[in-house]
Design goal:
The complex is a heterotrimer of chains A (328), B (203) and C (153). By secondary structure, chain A is an alpha+beta fold. Chain A is 41% helix and 15% strand. Chain A folds into four domains: 101 residues, Rossmann fold (3-Layer(aba) Sandwich); 97 residues, no CATH class; 76 residues; 37 residues, no CATH class. The longest helix of chain A is centred in the middle third of the chain and has 21 residues. Chain B has 203 residues and is α/β, with parallel strands linked by helices. In chain B, helix 3 packs across helix 5. Chain B is globular and about 45 Å long. The C terminus of chain B is likely disordered. Chain C has one domain: Dynein light chain 2a, cytoplasmic (Beta-Lactamase, 2-Layer Sandwich), CATH 3.30.450.30. Chain C is 50% helix and 22% strand. In chain C, strands 2-1-5-4-3 form a five-stranded antiparallel sheet, with helices on both faces. The model of chain C has no long low-confidence stretch (mean pLDDT 90). The chains are: A alpha+beta (328), B alpha/beta (203), C alpha+beta (153). Chains A and B meet through strand 10, helix 6, helix 8 and helix 11 of A and helix 4, helix 5, strand 8, helix 6 and helix 7 of B. The structure holds guanosine-5'-triphosphate and magnesium ion. Guanosine-5'-triphosphate binds next to helix 1 and strand 3 of chain B.
Chain lengths: 328, 203, 153
C-alpha cells in the first residue's frame, strides 16, 4: 500500500493513435483490475480534459515501443508533463501511475497544502482500517520500515522512541518517504509504553479539512457529539459554536457546512478530527444504551469520587431517566 | 452505595440556588441570609452554608443536590461539599466584573476533580454580556493544562440545567472508558489520565 | 477577595468594640471573640491564638445559618445558638438580636471554662450590640425621613 489514497479517483485519458490507444487502454484496465487499491485511485476516461492525459512524444512517430508523455493537470490548474519509459511493461506503468498520483495529490513542491492532502489520505486509510482491525494493531511503515504500531480502538501509538510525533513533522515525513498502513499483529509490542495518538489524530483531522469530509463521515447519518472534544480547546471560536450545534438537533457534515458557522474547510477539519478521535456517538445507538461495559479503572482516576465505576454507570443511567421523566 | 450527590459551585449570584430549584423535587433547604456586601452582588439574599435539594431515582436511591456558597471567604465549604460527589457543575456569571478570575478560583479549588473528568463549567448571561466569550474561557482552561467542557447556559431554564448534567455524565463516562482502556492496554499507573492530558496539552 | 471586613459608621463601631472588649474581660479562659455579618464578613475581633479571624467570621456565618436551617427542618423552631464542644476548647455562636438581624457574635474559650458562663456573657454582649444596632438603624431611619422631607419641601 503506497500513499496514493485519494479523495476522488483520478481520471486518465489516452490520446494516442488508434492502434496504440487500444493497447494502452487495455493495459490500464488490466492493471486496475489486478491491483485493487489502484482501482480506487484511477479510472479510464474518454473525456477531453482528464487529470492525466497520455500522449506520444512529438518526435516518436509510429514506434510502438516509444515512451509516453503523461500530461498532468494539477488541482491548482497548473500543468506538468512527465515521461513514462517502457510503458508496455506493466510494472513500469504501475510505478508511473503511483508516482503521478502522489504528485497530483501531495504536490511535488511539498507545499503546506499538499501536506494537508497527505493528512487527509492518511486519516482515510486510518479510519478504514480502524473499522476492519478487530483487535489487531495497525502497522505504520515509512520508507519501507515499520516505524510504529497503532491501536485504533484504544487510540494508542507504540514507537521505539515512545514519543508521539508532532503533526507538522509527521506530514513532512509522510511527504518525504512513502508510507503504508496495514493490519498487523494483535498483541501490543513488549516494553513499549503506549502513548495516546489522539493529539496527533486531532491535528491531522484539522489539517485535512480543506480536502473535505472523510468518507467515513459522509457515510454517517446524523452526527452527535459524545462528551466534549477537549482537544478543541484553544482552537478557533467557531469550534465552540460547532460543539453547541453538534450537541443539539440533527446535523450532518453537509448541513454543518451549509450552516455558515465557519468556512467549509474549517468545518470539515473539525468534523474529521472529531471522527478520528472518536468524539461521535455510534450511528444508531442512543447514548444511554451505548454505555460501555463495566471495566476496571485505575484508582487515581476516581480520586474525587467514592463510587465504583460499574455502580456509577447504573447510577448515571438512573439519574438520566429521572431527569427526563421530570421534564414538564 | 452510601451517597449519590452532585455539587453546584460558582461565584455569588451565578445561579446555584436557582439551578437546584430547577431540578429538585423537594422545596430546597437553603441557608439564605441577608446580603450585606453589595460590592459583590445587589441580590437581597445569599447562601452562606449550602443549598440542598433532592431527586428520587427509579432505583429508590436519592440524588442529593448541593449548592455551595459563592464568596471566596466561604471556600472552606467547597471541598466539604464536593467530597464524594459524582461531579461538580461550576456556574459562572459573565456579567460579573472579572469572570475569568472567578474561573481561575474554581479551577484551582476543584483541580483534583477536573483531572478525573468530573467538572463542567456553564457560563450565564452571555446574551447580555458576550465578553469574554466561551473561547476565552477555554483558553484560560487550557493555559492551566486542564481540560473541561465550557458551555453557555441559563439556569432559569430547566432544560439548560439538565443539559449541563448530561454533559457532565458524558464526560464522566468518556473518562472512565479511556481510563479503562489504559488498564486494558497495560498502561497502568495512577496518573495515566493526568499524563494523557498533559501530553495532549503539550501538542 | 482582598478584604472581607466591614467598615462601620464610627458610633456603631465604638459601641461594638466596647462590648467586645468587655466580653473578653468577663470570661476567664477566653481565647477570642468575633463579630461578623450574617453573610460571614468580619466586623470586629479579639483573637488570642493564631486562628484567622476572616476565616472564623465566614465559618460562623455558615454555622449559624446552618443551625437555623436545621431548626426549621426538624421543626424544633428557631435556633438560639450553636455550640462546638471540642476536646481543646469550645466555640459558641449566636445571632445579634436586633430589628434587622445583620450580625452574629461568637466566643472561643478553653475547656476549663464553664459553658453556662460563656453562654450567659456572650448573650448579654449580643444584647448590648443589638441595642447599638437598633439605635443606629433608628438614626438612619430618621435621617432618611429628614432627607425625604427636605426633598419634598
Ligand atoms: N437575566 C439573567 N438572569 C439570570 C441568569 N442566570 C441566573 N439569573 C438570575 O440570577 C439570580 C441568581 O441567583 P441565585 O440562584 O440565588 O444565585 P447563587 O449562585 O445561589 O448565589 P449565592 O448563593 O449568593 O452565591 C437569579 O435571580 C436568577 O434568576 C441569566 O442567564 N440571565
Ligand atoms: Mg445561592
Amino acid at each position: 500500500m503506497t500513499n496514493t489514497q485519494e479523495f476522488a479517483p483520478l481520471s486518465i485519458a489516452v490520446a494516442l493513435p488508434a492502434y496504440r490507444r487500444a493497447l494502452v487502454e487495455r493495459m490500464l484496465q488490466r492493471l486496475l483490475q489486478e491491483n485493487g487499491e489502484m482501482s480506487a485511485d484511477w479510472y479510464v476516461s474518454h473525456a477531453a480534459e482528464a487529470d492525466v492525459t497520455l500522449r506520444l512524444p512529438p518526435d516518436e512517430g509510429a514506434d510502438p515501443s516509444a515512451s509516453l508523455l503523461a500530461e498532468l493537470r494539477r488541482p491548482d490548474g497548473g500543468r506538468e508533463t512527465l515521461t513514462i519509459e517502457w510503458p508496455w511493461r506493466p510494472g513500469a506503468l504501475l510505478a508511473a501511475l503511483q508516482r503521478i498520483a502522489r504528485l497530483l495529490r501531495s504536490g511535488a513542491a511539498g507545499s503546506a497544502d499538499a501536506r494537508d492532502a497527505l493528512a487527509w489520505q492518511w486519516l482515510r486509510r486510518w479510519s478504514e482500517l480502524a473499522l476492519e482491525a478487530r483487535g489487531r494493531l495497525l502497522e505504520l511503515r515509512m520508507g519501507g520500515q515499520v516505524v510504529a504500531l497503532m491501536d485504533a480502538r484504544l487510540g494508542y501509538w507504540y514507537a521505539a522512541n515512545q514519543v508521539l510525533p508532532d503533526a507538522a513533522q509527521f506530514v513532512t515525513a509522510l511527504a518525504r518517504d512513502s508510507y503504508s498502513i496495514e493490519l498487523g499483529q494483535a498483541t501490543p509490542p513488549p516494553l513499549l509504553r503506549p502513548v495516546s495518538i489522539k493529539p496527533l489524530l486531532w491535528q491531522l483531522g484539522v489539517r485535512s479539512g480543506h480536502y473535505g469530509a472523510l468518507p467515513a463521515l459522509r457515510q454517517r447519518g446524523g452526527l452527535r457529539l459524545k462528551g466534549w472534544p477537549y482537544l478543541a480547546a484553544g482552537g478557533p471560536k467557531a469550534y465552540a459554536e460547532l460543539i453547541q450545534k453538534l450537541r443539539g438537533g440533527f446535523n450532518t457534515a453537509a448541513s454543518l457546512r451549509d450552516s455558515g458557522l465557519a468556512a467549509a474547510g474549517l468545518v470539515d477539519g473539525f468534523l474529521n478530527a472529531c471522527l478520528v478521535c472518536d468524539f461521535f456517538h455510534g450511528e444508531t445507538a442512543e447514548p444511554a444504551a451505548s454505555a460501555p461495559a463495566p471495566v476496571p479503572v485505575p484508582a487515581g482516576v476516581f480520586a474525587g469520587a467514592q463510587m465504583r465505576p460499574g455502580n456509577e454507570q447504573a447510577v448515571i443511567a438512573s439519574i438520566r431517566r429521572s431527569l427526563h421523566a421530570g421534564t414538564p | 452505595m452510601s451517597e449519590i450527590k452532585l455539587l453546584f459551585a460558582g461565584p455569588m449570584g451565578a445561579g446555584k440556588t436557582t439551578a437546584i430549584r430547577a431540578i429538585s423535587e423537594i422545596e430546597p433547604i437553603s441557608t439564605e441570609v441577608e446580603n450585606t456586601d453589595f460590592s459583590e452582588s445587589d441580590k437581597a439574599e445569599t447562601t452562606v452554608a449550602m443549598d440542598y435539594g433532592e431527586l428520587t431515582l427509579d432505583s429508590g436511591d436519592k440524588l442529593r443536590l448541593y449548592g455551595s456558597p459563592g464568596q471566596k471567604r466561604f471556600e472552606f465549604m467547597w471541598p466539604l461539599l464536593a467530597q464524594g460527589a459524582l461531579g461538580v457543575v461550576v456556574l459562572l456569571d459573565n456579567s460579573r466584573p472579572e469572570p475569568l478570575a472567578d474561573l481561575e478560583d474554581f479551577l484551582s479549588a476543584f483541580s483534583g476533580l477536573i483531572e478525573a473528568g468530573r467538572v463542567v463549567v456553564a457560563v450565564g448571561r452571555l446574551e447580555t454580556h458576550p465578553q469574554p466569550g466561551l473561547d476565552d474561557y477555554l483558553a484560560s482552561v487550557s493555559r492551566r493544562g486542564q481540560f473541561l467542557p465550557v458551555i453557555g447556559a441559563d439556569v432559569r431554564r430547566r432544560d439548560d440545567v439538565v443539559g449541563m448534567l448530561e454533559l457532565l455524565f458524558e464526560q464522566i463516562e468518556s473518562t472512565a472508558s479511556t481510563a479503562a482502556a489504559a488498564v486494558a492496554a497495560g498502561a497502568a499507573g495512577d496518573d495515566e489520565w493526568l499524563q494523557f492530558v498533559q501530553r495532549a496539552r503539550a501538542q | 477577595m482582598t478584604q472581607a471586613s466591614l467598615n462601620l459608621p464610627e458610633a456603631l463601631r465604638g459601641a461594638l468594640d466596647t462590648a467586645l472588649r468587655e466580653l473578653h474581660q468577663r470570661i476567664p479562659a477566653i481565647m477570642g471573640c468575633v463579630v461578623a455579618t450574617v453573610d460571614g464578613r468580619l466586623v470586629a475581633h479579639i483573637i488570642d491564638n493564631e486562628a484567622d479571624p476572616q476565616r472564623i467570621a465566614a465559618m460562623i456565618g455558615s454555622m449559624v445559618a446552618l443551625g437555623e436551617s436545621i431548626g426549621r427542618e426538624t421543626r424544633i423552631d428557631r435556633s438560639q445558638y450553636v455550640v462546638v464542644n471540642a476536646s481543646n476548647g469550645l466555640l459558641y455562636a449566636q445571632r445579634v438580636p436586633s430589628r434587622r438581624e445583620l450580625f452574629v457574635v461568637s466566643t472561643l474559650a478553653r475547656p476549663t471554662t464553664n459553658l453556662g458562663l460563656v453562654l450567659h456573657e456572650t448573650r448579654s454582649a449580643a444584647e448590648e450590640i443589638g441595642q447599638a444596632v437598633d439605635g443606629w438603624l433608628e438614626q438612619q431611619q430618621t435621617r432618611l425621613a429628614a432627607a425625604a422631607s427636605t426633598a419634598e419641601a
